[in-house]
């Protein structure tokens, strides 16, 4: 799914419109089949004239917080309805956050991040001087420029593909008894396998920027430190390792703190 869709579904009326001139974001609720027994409402969140994709999940703009909800109750409603909804309607009584409520951290927004069009970070640790037009994805945990779909679309695609590869690696481990040292094995299977059914297509091993996804396995002694048994990585748009646009999955689960932090913690307790 792309970050932006072309146009909105035709409806008989529009209600609850909220314009965000600062970030060029507009929220609309469109009532379909108004006055009939088949009446329903779809929500649309657009920035710079194009609709945000549901893959972003839950987002915070300068006008409010919204979540994409896909739960079709009736067969005559379109796929993806009711669509974007104010967070206060998704979670009853929830306070509506805006990007103005984000806290700036010690890092400063850079020219590199402006060019990239996004950066990972917490809502409560925004880079100082981040443009007011930027939007935060609570689900994906990154700040982004909604006017740069050519940068954000590949990022969302890579995140989705990484998630699918993680599932395939787990399936491989369940079938074979160990994790694959090379992602190509998801396609061709281990050497001794007969009638192997590929777990992913061959082109699923290439990221949106044309480089191969890589897998790194951790020994049990390392797994506790890293918080995971394996890691799948994309080099990102710059195709270079160890830079800010690198992507990886899955997320660590309770990784062990670095030794220096443990020493400092013990020293603090001994004071």
Please render the helix and strand layout as text:
Blueprint: E1 4-5, E2 13-20, E3 25-32, E4 40-47, E5 50-52, E6 58-60, E7 65-70, E8 82-86, H1 87-90, E9 104-108, H2 111-116, E10 118-120, E11 126-128, E12 135-137, E13 142-144, H3 149-176, H4 185-188, E14 214-217, H5 220-226, E15 230-234, E16 247-249, H6 259-270
Parallel strand pairs: 9-11
Antiparallel strand pairs: 1-5, 2-3, 3-4, 4-5, 6-7, 6-12, 7-8, 10-13, 12-13, 14-15, 15-16
What features would you describe in this structure?
The protein is α+β, with helices and mostly antiparallel strands and 271 residues long. The chain has 2 domains: 4-147, no CATH class; 150-249, Glycoprotein, Type 4 Pilin (2-Layer Sandwich), CATH 3.30.700.10. The protein contains 6 helices and 16 strands. The strands form 4 sheets. It has a 6-stranded antiparallel beta sheet with strand order 8-7-6-12-13-10. A 5-stranded antiparallel beta sheet has the order 1-5-4-3-2, with no helix packed on it. The chain has a 3-stranded antiparallel beta sheet with strand order 14-15-16, covered by helices on one side. The radius of gyration is 22 Å and the shape is globular.
